[in-house]
Each structure stands twice: as C-alpha cells, then as structure tokens.
C-alpha cells in the first residue's frame, strides 16, 4: 500500500514538473512576444512616415533586437527539446503544421531583416549598396509571415501574460520573476544598443526620402492580407 501511494505521488510529481517545464517556456515566449508585438506595431506606424522619422525607425529597430533574442531563444529551446524527444514537450505536441512549415522562413527573414537593417545603419545612405535592396525585399516578405504567426497566437498570448503577471495561486508557475526579469533586461540591452547606435546612424538624418508610404511596407501589407486569407481557415483546422 505504501509503495502504491509512493508510486502515485511520484508519478504526480513527474507530471507536475513536466507541466511546469511547458508552462515556463510558454509564458516566457508569451511575454517576449507581447513586447515584440507592441514594438512592431510602433515600428510599422513609424515606417509609414519614414521620410520624417528615419532616426526613430532605426532607434526602435535596434531596440527590438533585445526582445527578439529572447523570443527566438525560447521558441528555439522548445524546438530543440521537442525534436530531442523530451517527454514534456513531446506530450504537449508540436505546433500547428502550418506554423512549422512557416517557421524556417520566419527565422530566415527575421535574421535577414535585422542584419540588413544593422548594415544599413552602420554604412549610411552613401554606402548602402545591396543592403538597401536586401532590407526592402526581406521586409516585404517578412510582414506576411509575421502576420500569420501573430494571428495564430494572438488569442493565447494575453491570457498567458496576464496569468503570469497576476501570480495568483491558481495560475502560479515557478520562475515568474526570472521571466519578467529576462524580458526587462533584454529591453534594457536593446535600449542601450539603440542609444549607442544614434551617433553611428546619424548620417541617415540628412537623407532625403520621398514622401508617401514606402513600397516595401505597402507590398508587405498586401501580401499579409493575402497570406491571412489563405492561412486563416488552415489554422482553424483541428489537429489530426
């Protein structure tokens, strides 16, 4: 009888630890995603008025890098643990097949957008070379992929963030202070980097940009509408 009871509590503890592993990762990802979502909306609004706000565009773009590292690290951790056969992540199951299909493109385009953006900030308008075309093309393709990704998670993220910030006993998951701290630290690192970059990218302040919406932004929004039109019914399909 004692052995049965010990076995029961042992299995329960294992199950609880596995659940905590999943929830910690989900909540860290959700907080980073929420921060990124707000900053990306700000960046898109700024980009729409790029001819007047080029310096702010660069500042926010650099600021984004900190939370982005957290987001990519947490999702990358889930990816590695799942394909390494971790019981907790295998039991939780993979993401939707469409998101798994889009993930390599999302990672590649995200890296391309930021590498080309940083290269442009350092090189200045007189020496932008191929980086300008690379940045414009990658942004136009990146926006629709991000739109699908955001749509797939937009309902879950607020609930997960709220549950973590409330820290109510019914929703408590160990490590909340660490998760919040990591995201605050990432924001601070991004902020410091953005401030340091200001004199480096100052040459862009004197670059004459035509008025109106930038063509990569227009193309990206149009592609995003089309991508969401295609992806929406697929994302609502039940898992087999």
The succession of helices and strands, N to C, reads HHHHHHHH
Q: Please state roughly what percent of the residues sit in beta strands, choosing from under 5%, 5-15%, 15-25%, 25-35%, 35-45% or over 45%.
A: under 5%
| Structural class estimated from helices and strands | mainly alpha
Shape: globular
Oligomer: single chain
How many strands? 0
The helicity comes to over 70%
In the predicted model, the low-confidence regions spanning at least 5 consecutive residues are 1-12
Number of domains: 1
Mean pLDDT: 87
Largest sheet: none
Give a description of the structure.
This protein has one domain. The protein has 240 residues and is an all-alpha fold. Helix 1 (2-48) crosses helix 6 (156-166). The radius of gyration is 21 Å and the shape is globular. The two termini are 40 Å apart. It has helices spanning 2-48, 50-83, 87-92, 97-123, 129-153, 156-166, 176-200, 215-235. The protein has 8 helices and no strands. The model is unreliable at 1-12 (pLDDT under 50).
């Amino acid at each position: 009888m004692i052995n049965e009871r010990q076995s029961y509590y042992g299995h329960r503890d294992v199950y609880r630890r596995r659940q905590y592993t999943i929830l910690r990762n989900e909540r860290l990802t959700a907080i980073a995603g929420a921060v990124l979502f707000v900053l990306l909306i700000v960046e898109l609004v700024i980009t729409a008025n790029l001819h007047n706000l080029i310096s702010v565009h660069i500042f926010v773009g650099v600021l984004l890098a900190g939370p982005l590292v957290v987001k990519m690290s947490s999702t990358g951790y889930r990816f590695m643990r799942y394909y390494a056969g971790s019981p907790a992540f295998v039991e939780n199951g993979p993401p939707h097949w469409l998101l798994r299909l889009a993930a390599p493109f999302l990672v590649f385009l995200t890296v391309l957008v930021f590498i080309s953006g940083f290269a442009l900030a350092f090189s200045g308008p007189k020496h932008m070379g191929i980086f300008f075309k690379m940045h414009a093309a990658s942004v136009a393709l990146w926006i629709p992929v991000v739109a699908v990704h955001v749509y797939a998670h937009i309902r879950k993220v607020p609930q997960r963030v709220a549950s973590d910030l409330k820290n109510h006993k019914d929703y408590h998951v160990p490590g909340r202070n660490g998760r919040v701290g990591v995201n605050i630290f990432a924001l601070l690192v991004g902020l410091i980097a953005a401030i340091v970059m200001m004199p480096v990218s100052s040459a862009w302040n004197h670059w004459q940009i035509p008025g109106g919406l930038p063509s990569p932004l227009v193309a990206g929004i149009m592609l995003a509408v089309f991508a969401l039109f295609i992806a929406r019914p697929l994302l609502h399909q039940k898992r087999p």
